[in-house]
Amino acid sequence: MSGKERLPIFPSRGAQMLMKARLKGAQKGHSLLKKKADALQMRFRMILSKIIETKTLMGEVMKEAAFSLAEAKFTTGDFNQNILQNVDKAKFKIRTKKDNVAGVTLPVFESYQDGADSYEFTGLARGGQQFAKLKKNYHKAVVLLVELASLQTSFVTLDEVIKITNRRVNAIEHVIIPRIEKTLAYIVSELDELEREEFYRLKKIQDKKRIARKKVEAAKAALLESGVVIEQAGNMLDDEDKDLLF
Fold first, then answer.
1. pTM, whole model, 2 decimals?
2. Which of 112, 113, 172, 225 could bridge 30 with an S-S bond, Cβ 3.0-4.6 Å?
3. DSSP the chain
4. Is the Cα torsion angle 178, 184, 186, 189 positive or negative in sign?
5. Distances from the Cα of 12 to the Cαs of 17, 18, 19, 35, 131, in angstroms?
6. Which domain holds residue 49?
7. 234 is a domain residue
8. What string of pLDDT tens digits covers the 246 residues of the chain?
9. Is residue 226 part of a domain?
10. Is residue 155 part of a domain?
11. Looking at the domain assignment, is residue 244 inside a domain?
């Protein structure tokens, strides 16, 4: 219920049914958002554990790659300039996919090799084994870097969405639902008061009718004793009874 809405001046059954429908909708929305928050939290914890595992593995892979680079340079000498001069375009590329978790779109980075390896025969003269080991280790390191980037991007995205979802859950649970319940309680109390007033009014009308009827019967009895014509007296007393009712 927004701040612009006001309590009805004259509560009715229609207003009560409307507030009950709103309460049911708020409770249903709270349940769905709670399930969404739980699903996001589960995925968040799983991504966090994978990030820790990947970072631990990344340290070992980078250490092996650094050692293999040192071995290759020791065996064949400095080959950086030769490789840099022969590079015309990237062979190792990244594509983006999307993953959906409880309605939240997460970016997923995936690495792939475009074309054949330009340095497949590098190191045939000397150091071929060290070059093969070097390429294998750095390829594994780059794949892990892409995977880690994907995990950390999903981690940040989920963190923001979880905060927003939790704020909505708390707002529905602690603000919207109590406000609707208070409004509903107000309507019910007012309707009960109106019913009590109506019952009291009907009771007073019945009492007035009973008193008027007794007066009419007493007047008829007095007229019978005095010998006056009953029809005329009865019409006159009936008119008086109508004035009392209205």
1. 0.63
2. 172
3. --TT----SS--HHHHHHHHHHHHHHHHHHHHHHHHHHHHHHHHHHHHHHHHHHHHHHHHHHHHHHHHHHHHHHHH---HHHHHHH--S-SEEEEEEEEEETTEEEEEEEEEE-S--TTTTTTTTTTHHHHHHHHHHHHHHHHHHHHHHHHHHHHHHHHHHHHHHHHHHHHIIIIIHHHHHHHHHHHHHHHHHHHHHHHHHHHHHHHHHHHHHHHHHHHHHHHHHHT--HHHHHHHHHHHHHHHH-
4. negative
5. 9, 10, 11, 35, 85
6. 13-187
7. no
8. 444 445 444 567 778 788 888 889 998 989 999 998 998 999 999 999 999 998 888 888 888 888 887 777 777 666 665 665 566 676 777 888 888 888 888 888 888 777 666 555 454 455 567 777 877 888 888 889 989 999 999 999 999 999 999 999 999 989 999 998 888 888 888 888 888 888 888 888 888 888 888 888 888 778 777 765 445 545 554 554 444 444
9. no
10. yes
11. no
Residue 155, domain CATH? 1.10.287.3240
Q: Write the single-letter amino acid at 206.
A: Q
The residue written with tokens 């909708």 in the block is: 25
